[in-house]
Amino acid sequence: MCRLLTADRRLYHQTEPWRHPEGAIFRCNGNGTASFAKQSSRGFVLRLTAATMASTEIARQAGEGARAVPLSGHVGFDSMPDQLVNKSVNHGFCFNILCVGETGLGKSTLMDTLFNTKFEGEPTQHNQPGVTLKSNTYELQESNVRLKLTVVNTVGFGDQINKEDSYKSIVEFIDAQFEAYLQEELKIKRTLHSYHDTRIHACLYFIAPTGHSLKSLDLVTMKKLDSKVNIIPIIAKSDAISKSELAKFKIKITSELVSNGVQIYQFPTDDESVAEINSTMNSHLPFAVVGSTEEVKIGNKMVKARQYPWGTVQVENETHCDFVKLREMLIRVNMEDLREQTHTRHYELYRRCKLEEMGFKDTDPDSKPFSLQETYEAKRNEFMGELQKKEEEMRQMFVQRVKEKEAELKEAEKELHEKFDRLKKLHQDEKKKLEEKKKTLDDEVNTFKQKKTAAELLQNQAQQAGGSTTLKRDKERKN
Amino acid sequence: MSEAVVPDAMVSPAVGGLYGEKAGGPMLDFSYVGIDAILEQMRRKAMKQGFELNIMVVGQSGLGKSTLMNTLFKSKVSRKSVLATAQEKIPKTVEIKSISHDIEEKGVRMKLTVIDTPGFGDQINNENCWQPIMKFINDQYEAYLQEEININRKKRIPDSRVHCCIYFIPPTGHCLRPLDVEFMRRLSKVVNIVPVIAKADTLTLEERDFFKKKIREELRANGIDVYPQKEFDEDAEDRMINEKIREMIPFAVVGSDQEYQVNGRRLLGRKTKWGTIEVENIAHCEFAYLRDLLIRTHMQNIKDITSSIHYEMYRVRRLNENNTMVAHANGIPEHHLTAHEM
């Protein structure tokens, strides 16, 4: 007895070979699988159920871990997807696109065309010294869905003479977004619910329409990015290539990507409702797109197009370019899958590498699980030890420097003292000389004064003697 | 390097408005970008992944817990239906028995886990009978936390956290017993509690209203915040809806898994000599409100509150515990430690 679930979600259980209304003949293999003997003209998808699938008709059976239980009435939890969707609508969505490509390939125009709006910004110059990333966030709304769209542009990519380091700033940017999310996730008090997710969900890689093959810069960059982000390669300005050249170009690109081991994003084919369209689109990669925000009147409608003297390239015409396919795949069919892949594959890989780098392991060599707490403690002790060592070192250095400075100052002081002493001595010598001179001068003055006094005395005496003689004569006369 | 800019040409109504105006061609609408297709994508993903719900039922034996579970999910999900040897003896301590079921309705698959607590409140001395239950709930949080901080972790961490705990109040008609108050006070901090009045067909409508009012007063007086919690209302709309619900809790429910013929229809009910109580009739009992709250409208909300509030609180507590233990070991005063562990 086996049960089959067909693509139209009908459940069959049979034992003998039987015919499905669509025309295929099935046979039960008795071990839970079935094979079909003839394929119907429609070639629909057959899906076998596992034991966990339940329906209202099947009897209950004991499974491992969980039993499948039939419901005898309407319970109402089929509204769960609606509840989930409503909550998400209230919360809003966010989507981040990274556009990588040389200047002048029409990245900004394509974004404008994709989202039917004019994002701000003017064309960048070609003289940037390095590659920088500029990101802008926009809030778009369509019916009741609010989307926070972030478009990140690589400015100056491919413009330098030496392009060896071009990819580095892109990889750093992507890693920085992962790091920010990781930090938020590791916080103690965290608010993941309202966190604005800036991780890049899709990377549109713009290939220049040379018609020959990929440039080595493209290959190197894509190889560095393929494990970090979902890469969707597109051929920009594809109205420069003719149809036959385009087919050859696409084949060449795909083979080069495969031979270099570049993992580009494959649209998922496991969900049956979109498997078909996704697998056809996978074969059309890379998409050849044309972007335009100008409208031209064709027939009686205004369509987005690029007008040339020899004709008009309509952006949304599938025979002219793959723009419609890109929009279908990027936005209308796989946006959620892109976000999921980013979170579950690329982010997890980054997280694992980062944590392992920091020295955390899940199990130690005896394969007993490491308690995270022990690892924390060990790490913290190590860190503290290092800090202390550094502090010691700095202290030593400081002390040494102080000593040196002190010695220097002492030297200077000594010098100054000597100089002072010398000057003082000089000054004293001078003073002494001056004093001697003064003394000599004084002596001379004294001698002169003595002589002068002596001379005056003599003179006086002489006068007196003369006077006294006169007096004597007078006296004598009187007498 | 990023700024939130609303492009001036655009803003919301432009696209939506153009959508209606371009009536030129029948198919392609050139201004339609297709962002809202993400809702469909999410729905597809949700259907593929399926949902998980873990409900715990707590109450004395004989209050109709198993029957209520069976009625809620319209199938034999209770412990007694599953275990071949249904234990008639009341266990000596509180045991925790958890059974998982896979149910599917209209393509939506759900893994329902019913956690039963036989032995609760049945002993003579019921002190600390909530401890095994609290330990169980915290163990589930711990398991989730361990998986989350693993380096190699699974794509989808299996969620075994208890989303909702239905507490059965015996229909005495007077007021809450000390055991009820104590249990709800402790557990409302770690899990969403939905109190229900069990076997409500023993109360008349007036008695029921009086009982409910009394219970609400006591809950308020003791500071017990049951689901839907006042503090987690997000906006005015939520508050309005939740206020209406808060005016009705605890729901007075009657459970039954047997069908009877009433007015020509087969309905779930309890047949007595004086009449048949229809389980899904809101004039008879409030089971329909409980089912709508739990399953049809607030299931996602319940899970969100568990994962973003209760679990986060546990995580903060647990990681801080680590911090303080390490701090005391190293002699570093707590205020020197930063929030970042790494």
UniProtKB/TrEMBL annotation, chain A:
InterPro entries listed in its UniProt record: G_SEPTIN_dom, P-loop_NTPase, Septin
Single annotated GO MF: GTP binding
Disordered: annotated segments: 460-479
Family according to the record: Belongs to the TRAFAC class TrmE-Era-EngA-EngB-Septin-like GTPase superfamily. Septin GTPase family.
Keywords: Coiled coil, GTP-binding, Nucleotide-binding
SUPFAM superfamilies, A to Z: P-loop containing nucleoside triphosphate hydrolases
Ranges of residues in domain Septin-type G: 91-357
Superkingdom as given in the UniProt entry: Eukaryota
Protein name: Septin
Native source organism of the sequence: Pundamilia nyererei
Coiled-coil intervals, chain numbering: 373-451
TrEMBL record, chain B:
Domain Septin-type G: 49-321
GO annotation (BP), single: cell division
A GO molecular-function descriptor: GTP binding
Matches recorded under Gene3D superfamilies: P-loop containing nucleotide triphosphate hydrolases
Keyword Transferase: no
Matching SUPFAM superfamilies: P-loop containing nucleoside triphosphate hydrolases
Top-rank taxon: Eukaryota
InterPro entries, per database record: G_SEPTIN_dom, P-loop_NTPase, Septin
Localization: Cytoplasm, Cytoskeleton
Any Pfam family matching the protein: Septin
Annotated keywords: Cell cycle, Cell division, Cytoplasm, Cytoskeleton, GTP-binding, Nucleotide-binding
Predominant cellular place of this UniProt entry's protein: cytoplasm
Keyword Cell division: yes
Cellular component terms (Gene Ontology): cytoskeleton
Homology family: Belongs to the TRAFAC class TrmE-Era-EngA-EngB-Septin-like GTPase superfamily. Septin GTPase family.
Name recorded for this polypeptide: Septin 9a isoform X8
